[in-house]
Write a structure and sequence with these properties.
mainly beta
């Protein structure tokens, strides 16, 4: 049995390894036809784990009035060629969010999960892109109609910290 992690896809998130400054833009209210955005900053530090078949990041979100920390765990399944992504919010330390699952194709990472928001079933989408070197972008969107339409409700633009 090989322990190699040089399978296609396992390096998909290598662009995100390191230390980052984040600019957050988040809708003040989700799924409420809100057009008001809240902007704030933060930092993220990402490391490889499991011999490169996963990664972990530690996040500081400097939200006005309620700054907090959170963590992301990602793991790559070489058999299916897919990633799973979990979010753990320090404000709710006993709750691990529903895992997002997906892959990168043509330089865009698309990840989906079925979840609930305010008691309503939703479909969640994460999009990962790298519009410029060392400046990746993450977007979150919700759908209440099974993915026919999407409301983007959170965008993070990252810039690599210079040593």
């Amino acid at each position: 049995m090989s322990t190699s992690t040089n399978t296609t896809g396992a390096a998909d998130f290598d662009f995100f390894i390191g230390n980052w400054n984040a600019k957050h833009r988040r809708l003040k209210e989700r799924l409420a036809h809100c057009q008001d955005w809240q902007e704030f900053t933060g930092t993220t530090s990402t490391i490889k784990i499991m011999g490169g078949a996963g990664n972990f990041d530690d996040n500081q979100l400097d939200m006005p009035d309620t700054p907090y920390r959170a963590a992301t765990l990602r793991s790559f399944d070489a058999g299916s060629g897919t990633w799973s992504i979990w979010w753990l919010d320090a404000r709710y330390p006993s709750h691990l969010d529903t895992p997002m699952r997906g892959r990168f194709q043509n330089g865009i990472g698309e990840f989906y999960a079925d979840d609930t928001f305010a008691g309503q079933p939703i479909r969640v989408r994460f999009l990962w892109t790298v519009p410029a070197p060392d400046m990746p972008r993450w977007e979150q969107a919700f759908s209440i109609d099974g993915g026919d339409t999407w409301e983007t409700n959170w965008v993070m633009d990252f810039e690599r910290q210079r040593e």
